[in-house]
Amino acid sequence: MSARYTGEPLLEVSDLHVSFSTYGGHVQAVRGASFTLNQGETLAIVGESGSGKSVTARSIMKLLPKDTAKITSGSIKYKNQELIHHSEKQMRKIRGSELTMIFQDAMTALNPTINIGEQLMEGIRHHQKLSRSDARKKAIQMLKLIGMKDPEVRLKQHLHEFSGGMRQRVMIAIAAIGNPSILIADEPTTALDVTIQAQILDLFKMLQQEIGVSIIIITHDLGVVANLAKRVCVMYAGKIVESGTVRDIFYDPKHPYTEGLLASMPRIDGDKGSPLTSIPGTPPDLFAPPEGCAFAVRCPHAMEVCRSYEPPNVQVGGFDSHYAACWLNDERAKSVLRQKENSHRKELEPVVM
Ligand SMILES: Nc1ncnc2c1ncn2[C@@H]1O[C@H](COP(=O)(O)OP(=O)(O)OP(=O)(O)O)[C@@H](O)[C@H]1O
Ligand code: SF4
Ligand SMILES: [Mg+2]
Asked: Ligand 1, atom 18: nearest CA belongs to which residue?
C-alpha cells in the first residue's frame, strides 16, 4: 500500500522545458514549469487549452512522441530519482506500477477487442508476478471497490458494453489496480454529465483514502479543482504562473490570469447577476514566445516592464504555499505603480486658490 499524506515531496518537477520539432519550427510547449507533488495529496493543474498541461504529464511518464518531442532541460525527481536520466527499461518498471496515468483520450487507450478482466489483470500480472487466479481475485476486488455490480460478469465484458461513466470507472480501476504512488488523471471528467462527474470525483477521493495514492488532476474546470484538490498550479503558455492552496487561488489570487479564469467560472453560490466573462485575446504563439510576460498582450494591468522582462516567481501572502509570477507582486514594480498613482491623483486634485 502507498503511503498516506505526509506532506513530504514525492515528485519534484523543476524548470522543465519541452519542445516539439515540426515542419513550422520548434513549438516550445513547456517553458520552465516547476511544481511539487507531496505524498498523499491531490494537486490540480489548470489552464486554458494548449497551455502545456498534457505535455507536462506525459513528460513525467516519459511518454512523449519519440521522434518529435524533446525534454530540452530541467529535472523530474520521483522519490529523489532523476527520471530524466532513466532508460526506457527503468521507466517500464515504474510506469503502471508506481506512476500511472489516465489519458485525456482515455477511450482510445482501452483495447476494444480484449475483455476488461484481461486489461485489468495485464499490468498486475506483469509487475507483481501474480498467478492468473490471484490476479483475477484482485481484479474482482478492484471492480467492487469502484462500485461495479456483478464484477465476475463484468470482467468478461468488452468496452462497448459499458456506459460512458462506467468506462471511465474501468479506466480508473486499471490505473489504480497496481496500488501506484502517483496517479495522473488528464481531464478525467470532461466528457461526462454533471451527475456522473460528481460520482467520478467521489471515486478519486475514495481511492485516495483506500490506497493512499497521490493524485495530479488536470482540468479546465475550476469546479473539479474546488471539489477535489488541496493545492493548485495555474498553467499559462508552458509555465506555472501561480500556485497555492485551493483557498489561496480561489479567495486571494495574485495573478491576473488566475483572476480571469475565476471570472469565467460559473458560480455555484448563485450570484446570477454577475455575467460570465471569458479572458479576451488568445495565448501567445509558442513557436516564438514573447520575451517578457506571456500574458502581457491580454492583461488589463500590463506595464512597460511586463513586455521586456519575465516576471520572477515570488512568494506572495504570508504562507510558504502561495507563489505567483507577475510583476504586480514585485516591490520594485509596486513602487513605480504607487508613483504613477500619486502623480495621477495630484493631477486630479482641485487647485486651492
Ligand atoms: N505531438 C505534438 N506535436 C507538436 N506540438 C504539440 C504536440 N503535442 C502538443 N503540442 C503543442 O504543445 C502545446 C501544449 O499542448 P498540451 O497538449 O500540453 O496542451 P493542454 O494544456 O493539455 O491543452 P488541452 O486543455 O487542450 O488538453 C500546444 O501548443 C500544442 O499544440
Ligand atoms: S507581469 Fe504584467 S502583464 Fe504579466 S500578468 Fe503581471 S501585470 Fe499582467
Ligand atoms: Mg491536454
From this structure: 52
